[in-house]
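subagent[fold] <- orchestrator: predict structure for attached chain, return tokens only, no commentary.
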Amino acid sequence: MKIAMLSRAPNLYSHTRLKEAGLARGHEFDIINTTRCYMNIASRRPEIYYNGEKLPLYDAVIPRIGASVTFYGLAVLRQFEMMGVYPVNESVAIGRSRDKLRSLQLLARDGIGLPVTTFAHDPKQTEEVVKVAGGAPMVIKLLEGTQGIGVVLADTDRSARSVIEAFRGVNINILVQEFIKEAGGTDIRAFVIGGKVVAAMKRTGAEGDFRSNLHRGGSAAVVKISPEERSTAIRAAKSMGLNVCGVDMLRSNHGPVVMEVNSSPGLEGVEKATGKDIAGMIIDHVEKSAVPGKTRTKGRG
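subagent[fold] -> orchestrator:
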């Protein structure tokens, strides 16, 4: 099988592991820098060029598109889809998950537990936003933030109003969410592949930091999740339409609540915490699922 991976950082742990797993199973495996691709958008004859040469027809593509190049990366992925190449995650599904507001709306539509979340355009509505979110402490998030960057914990209503008004005063879109105090600065990441939770880890933030991102000094350990948490993770992945993802949840007093569904989850933390071969499981999923033209959207949407 010929497998392509879209990535601008071939030396990342996750990407080297995926390549190792693909090669170990006898597949051809090419890592393609997403932003160096260019496309011939011709009627019924879609083509992708890379470093001056037309790319061959692959059996499958693994999109590992960085958040900073989401727009262009999804355009390249749609081109692969129109060529009949099987994508591990489809462009439409990745687009849903990268839009924080849309993803929460879709999760809410499907009855999946969420923190109380508010969104408003007019800074004059700050008082109402704070009230709907349940008052301080509350979490204020930039819609475009990743890896814990652009997330602020407001301890008082007064500080919350100041932060919200400051962001909205410069036309920056934000979400305001209730702070799940009982989570104690930890969250659960459930790794979903092909509609099944294959691994789970508990992430704990660095001392004094309410954010549990491993990129910000947090730590990870294997965790046993409840049937409700497992069901929530599977349903969240299905809501987004993602075959491979990390579902980040908090343990609240009223059950698991989903914070985010990550379409390009890192493998290092979960593999080291659980000892499981997650990269191999992803390649196994590709082997079982890569049928030409199987993409549901075929580049549409």
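orchestrator: received. Logging for downstream: Residues 117-179 form a domain with the Dna Ligase; domain 1 fold (CATH 3.30.1490.20). DSSP finds nine helices and 16 strands in the chain.
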